[in-house]
Amino acid sequence: MNQSPSGTPLDVESIRADFPILSKVLHDGVPLVYLDNAATTQRPRQVIQAMVDTYEQHYANVHRGIHWLSDQSTDLYEEAREKVRALINAPSREEVVFTTGTTASINTVAHSWGDANVGPSDEILVTEMEHHSNLVPWHQLAQRTGVAVRHVPVTDQGTLDMEAFDGLLSERTRLVAITAVSNVLGSINPLDEIITKAHATGALVLVDGAQSVPHQTIDVQALDADFLAFSGHKMMGPSGVGVLYGRRELLDAMPPFLGGGSMIRRVRLDGYEPADLPAKFEAGTPPIVPAIGLGAAIDYLNAVGLDSIARHEHDLTAYAHQQLGQLGSLRFLGPPPAEKSGIVSFLFENNRPHAHDIAQLLDRQGVAVRAGHHCAMPLHKRFKVNATARASFYLYNTRAEVDQLAEALAGVQQVFRRRRRG
Ligand SMILES: Cc1ncc(COP(=O)(O)O)c(C=O)c1O
Fold first, then answer.
1. 103 part of the active site
2. pLDDT digits (tens, 9 = 90+) for 232-253
3. What is the position in ligand 1's atom list of the atom closest to the CA of 102?
4. Do residues 334 and 182 lie in contact, with contact meaning Cβ atoms separated by under 8 Å?
5. 303-349: per-residue pLDDT in tens?
6. Integer Cα distance of 66 and 252 in angstroms
7. What are the tens digits of pLDDT across the range 250-278?
8. pLDDT at residue 359 greater than cutoff 60
9. How remote is the CA of residue 131 from the centroid of ligand 1, in Å?
10. In terms of Cα–Cα distance, which of 157, 150, 129 is closest to 376?
11. Which of 78, 95, 224, 418 has the fewest CB atoms within 10 Å around its CB?
């Protein structure tokens, strides 16, 4: 892979050569057009190789052995933590906790911080555009503690209703839990404004970075975020690893969520003392090799440059709106391309053909898109639809692939027009 200095166009062909799966030929000899990156991304050889090398040369359990191999794998695991720290500009490595993914990170905050800090007179503020991972843990917290969960509505354009946010934010709000980028609409939320206002009323802010950390620069100190959650598999890393960043004084004050090995300083038959950060939140054997793979994915992201990736995805998104818009009968959900991330959700008028039929017919042409509610049922309900089709881009996608999507969709449209006539 060639290095691309920040802001220069990507050398997409050389990037694609790093991803073995992208040259796959599917059923009927059609090449794979992978446009399901919001669900999960593909991995370059460098990430796969880093994990193979670890298993072949350096693998043992971490922080436990007094032997050479254990030291090696511990060093690699902690180097990966340092790469995460640098990526999000966390003040210290102790504030970077490895989890199994965004869902586990948010659940950790809901249990550990939530159970200790909220009650019936408090409120948690979420938004109508959240992924179920940033809704259900708060509903469960409400069941346990009586805290009220309020939600900020979404405008017809697919942006957050900031006037409503101002009205809902109050001294009762203990936490605002919000996604940086909607996994359906692609909307980019105004985190600076939200965090400043939340802090002014004394509320904390948890940022769901699942759809932003892989695509844009997120600096937790510049943002002044209290918690940040994201997943390795959405940023070219393996599944099974994710990150919870939390400000040190918050993590220090929070009781551990899971109990077991590694998270303790001392155990007696009648009690225990928790370990220091970050071990306190990493009970049991952690995702050692996935974390090392995530470190390699961060190296790859840095070599390409997040600014260049964001620019490339904006270009593909604008091009997709232009090409798909020519079909005439598509309805897009979310703001115009200039105001969003590389996610394009759409449906045909009256949802005929249904999003699932679209995805199945596109699959025959090798085009992989997602269909359904994308784990955002309340958002789909708000737009009075039960399903959409979603194309989502990453650094290795091309305009030619967008053309293939548009051509395949034109084919779907024709098939259904013929069926209706016949
Ligand atoms: C915005 C958002 N939050 C949370 C998640 C959950 O991520 P994971 O399944 O990796 O825990 C996703 C996954 O699609 C997402 O898009």
1. no
2. 999 999 999 999 999 999 999 9
3. 11
4. yes
5. 999 999 999 999 999 999 999 999 988 999 999 999 999 999 999 98
6. 28
7. 999 999 999 999 999 999 999 999 999 99
8. yes
9. 7
10. 129
11. 418
Kindly give the number of the ligand 1 atom that is closest to the alpha carbon of 242: 10
Q: What is the mean pLDDT of residues 202-221?
A: 98
Domain with CATH 3.40.640.10 in the chain: 47-302
The pLDDT of residue 422 is 66
Report pLDDT digits (tens) over 118-144: 999 999 999 999 999 999 999 999 999
Which CATH architecture fits 47-302? 3-Layer(aba) Sandwich (3.40)
Nearest atom within ligand 1 for CA of residue 375: 14
Placement of tokens 């013929």 in the chain = 418
Ligand 1, CB cutoff 6 Å, lining residues: 38, 101-103, 131, 133-134, 179, 183, 208, 210-211, 231, 375
- Ligand 1: centre distance to CA 158 (Å): 19
Mutation probe of ligand 1 site: the residue of 133, 213, 243 with most atoms within 8 A of C-beta: 133
The rounded Å distance from CA 137 to ligand 1 centre is 13
Long-range own/partner contacts, residues 7-10 (CB < 8 A, 24 or more apart): 7/305, 7/307, 7/308, 7/311, 8/305, 8/308, 9/308, 9/311, 9/312, 10/304, 10/308, 10/309, 10/312, 10/395
Domain formed by 12-31+306-415, architecture: Alpha-Beta Complex (3.90)
Nearest CA to ligand 1 atom 14: 39
- What gap in Å lies between CA 230 and CA 282, rounded to an integer? 16
Q: CATH 3.90.1150.10 spans which residues of the chain? A: 12-31+306-415
Which of 36, 106, 136, 211 has most ligand 1 atoms within 8 Å of its beta carbon, as the pocket-test mutant? 211
Residue given tokens 């309340």 in the structure block: 378
